[in-house]
Description:
The chain is of the alpha+beta class.
Amino acid sequence: MSTGQMLARVPFRYVGQNLERGELFSLRGSPRDNQLLGIGYMIPFDKNEHRDMACDNCGKHFATEGFYIAHKSKKGGCLAPSPDITKGETAMLLNIDLQKLTVEE
Ligand SMILES: [Zn+2]
């Protein structure tokens, strides 16, 4: 099991952290790690493919300029909570069948 840097492909809650789309984070050895990887919620960070842009306000890291800009342009500032994402939206972002989404929220 990898313990390296990961990239959140969709917003989700991970070991008490509310991850945003495109946010970089470290694995914590959660029992859900394999499931989250398998379903595509997160993928390993690849420094050849992704960027690493740190927010100058909160210090979060993002994998692309688009995700960074989305973070910076949130209503109420970058630390404002992200709107909840539905299972349907998650399935759409991951381009998978809704039926395959089995991760407990
Ligand atoms: Zn920020």
